[in-house]
Design brief:
single chain, mainly alpha, 1 helix, rod-shaped
Length: about 80
């Protein structure tokens, strides 16, 4: 009977250790997934800003080209002016 109780206590202790390990693994995985999601979100924002900057650069190039060519604004520039 003592052996059964001893084995039961060992089994209980090991099950508790396993449960703690699974919980730790779950929280670490959740934390890493949150970081991964944040990384994706930040990269999306960077792409958006990059797209806006490229559009602004294109519009600025059109404006500069218009001024260089006899000081006349090209039709593509006029709708973009405030």
């Amino acid at each position: 009977m003592a052996d059964v109780e001893y084995n039961g206590s060992i089994l209980k202790e090991r099950m508790n250790r396993f449960a703690r390990y699974v919980n730790t693994l779950k929280s670490e995985t959740s934390e890493k997934m949150n970081l991964f999601s944040a990384n994706i979100e930040i990269k999306g924002h960077i792409l958006s800003v990059n797209s806006v900057m490229n559009t602004l650069q294109h519009n600025l190039d059109l404006l500069i080209d218009s001024v260089i060519k006899l000081g006349v604004l090209q039709p593509q520039v006029i709708p973009h002016l405030p």
